[in-house]
Amino acid sequence: MSRWRRLVSEVRADVSAARDRDPAAQGVSALEILSSWAGVQALLAHRFAHALGQAGVPFLPRLIAYSTRAVTGVEIHPSAKIGREFFIDHGAGVVIGETAEIGERVTLYQGVTLGGTGFQRGKRHPTLGDNVTVGSGAKLLGPIAVGDGAKIGANTVVVEDVPPYSTVVGNPGHPVKVDGKRIEGPDADWIHLPDPIAEAIKSLSQRIGELEQRLAELDGGEAQSGAAAELRERTGRSSAGG
Description:
- The protein is built from five helices and 15 strands.
- With about 240 residues, it is an alpha/beta fold.
């Protein structure tokens, strides 16, 4: 009985999370969210299927997961472990594998994959800590660990562990903020994230210019004026409303 009471509590927390994190859900009733938010519907079905699986009920959990995928476009294996206040925004194309583990207050956007690599058995899907945000189209592959408070940029491919409170972008993913230094702006602001590759190229370009200047001084000539394009950070209004 306690398992089902916990299920009801988790569903209430999930609806509250949708209202808190989705601007479109402001002022919307819980009934409307449950009936028309695909991500919430998929999570509700998963909670039920997961509870049935833990109770030892055969076949039905997988049937629920299959039917839910057909209706919502979200595929969550019944064995995946998901914490409270989980929110899937839009939901279409989200895939969560069998051995995936998700902490509390985690947010996934559309097209996210928590997948495996190869055909190995055992733990083969990612583990996400608390307060993690994963941008649309991101792929997290293998039994990696994503630390508490981490942010994964849109379309990032992550195949290695992510430190807590870091922001990861690129393919393969590179941490750009660590040790508690937060990215400014809303959690969904994937436009103004730093680009570690561009920063490295800029640093190398500056270093080459300095070396050319020094070489010209030693040779008694004049340094050539390079016409390298300046790499600038993306500016302007945030698509997330920031």
